[in-house]
User: Fold this.
Amino acid sequence: MYKDDMLGKLLKGIVGLPAEMIGTLYDLIEKLGGEDGDGWWAALKRFLRKENPWEKPLFKYDKTEDGWTLLEDTQFSDSFTPDFVSFLRPGENQVGGDVMRSRAKELNANLGQRDLQWLEANQHLIPESERGYYIVVPGTVWSGIHGGRRIACLVWDEDHWYTDFYWLGRDWNDRYHLLCLRK
Assistant:
């Protein structure tokens, strides 16, 4: 019933518009239903928020669209040769998120979400030996809608890697590796 009511209101609103506006709305509807409909939808939402609709978002997974807040970010490293390193010291089973982030800086592995996105698009560069690990980048930190800090991770799922976001307050164990630049 709600959808029908919205459609009725939309049609009543369109009927009163000048012909050139109706033509423009028709063009927009065609674009929203076309091949790049998701891109047009994202641009329209940015426009309605009074943002530049054509400015490319920094992130493929722009969590601001989910109501999250970007707290910290690092500079994108551009294309690079990836390497993977543990943040645990001998005798440790796990550490907290802030310790893991501190060690990432010590290990020159404080990469961010844009680096992870680049790696996700270039999965052939990830060795098979990493499939048993989560690949983390602690340089980009988001605050979720309930306030918990989160970072991006690449997760192996049978035949491909995908990005997910993990709570920084968790215990980080030997199943996680930091993404870093090969020396």
About this structure: Helices lie at 2-15, 19-32, 37-48, 97-106, 113-121.
